Amino acid sequence: MSASRFICSTIGGACVAIVTTADRAKDGPHKPVYISGMQGMCAGRREATGARPGLGIHQQDENEPVPNPRDLAVYRMAGVDHEDIDAFYTYDAMSSIVWLALERFGFCKPGEAWQFVNSGAIAPGGSLPVNTHGGLLSEVHVSGWNHLCEMVRQLRGECGERQVPDAEVVQWGTNRGDSLILRR
Fold first, then answer.
1. Helix, strand, coil proportions of the chain in percent (round to 5)?
2. What is the gyration radius of the CA atoms in the chain, in angstroms?
3. pLDDT tens by residue, 63-115
4. d(CA 35, CA 28)
């Protein structure tokens, strides 16, 4: 395979997100989608775009739990658990960081994401469809905004053949710990 299949190209494009109150959204022209939980990206010397926390020489903490409770705060805020997530969206400029995001949020144990992916779980019709629009590697790289647009379309039931049946709760989450949970 060529290297271009593993690293995406940045392409010009645009996405729009209009955020308002729930009261105003219910009177809009489209079905509203609600922000249920969110958290920011973790930062520090232990964090890297292409790796899990502490992946590297002399950076591992002996007893750090995986997933770390700080990474699961988004679920508490949204009032959901892993089993409630109908589809997962993640920054995928490099294919390997999809695995790291799945592990960071506890969908897989550390080192087991490849088996989860290989089983077909992230494919359409799988137990946790991932990046149903093709993601950055197959659609376009506009810094993840296309993921947000796809999440909204999924919750509105506007995705045709790639529609996740009865999607009610979807999550954005990256290997850096940032996350957003939307629900219809």
1. 30, 15, 60
2. 16
3. 566 777 888 899 999 999 989 999 999 988 788 889 989 998 999 998 899 99
4. 16
CA-to-CA distance for 158 and 147, rounded, in angstroms? Answer: 14
CATH number at residue 36: 3.40.47.10
Cα–Cα dist 97/92, whole Å:
6
State the total domains in the chain. 1
- Determine the Cα–Cα distance for residues 120 and 106; give it in Å rounded to an integer: 17
| Rounded-to-integer distance, Cα 6 and Cα 148, Å | 22
CA 51 to chain centre: 16
Residues with Cβ within 8 Å of 124's Cβ and at least 6 positions away in sequence, in order, are: 132, 162, 164
Q: Kind of pairing, strands 169-173 and 87-89?
A: parallel
pTM of the model: 0.84
How many CB atoms lie under 10 A from the CB of residue 86? 19
The candidate with the shortest Cα–Cα distance to 173, out of 115, 131, 120, is 131
Q: Distance between CA atoms of 123 and 13, rounded to whole angstroms?
A: 25
Find the domain containing 72 and state its range: 3-183
| 78's tokens | 């949204």
At 100, which helix (H) or strand (E)?
Answer: helix 96-104
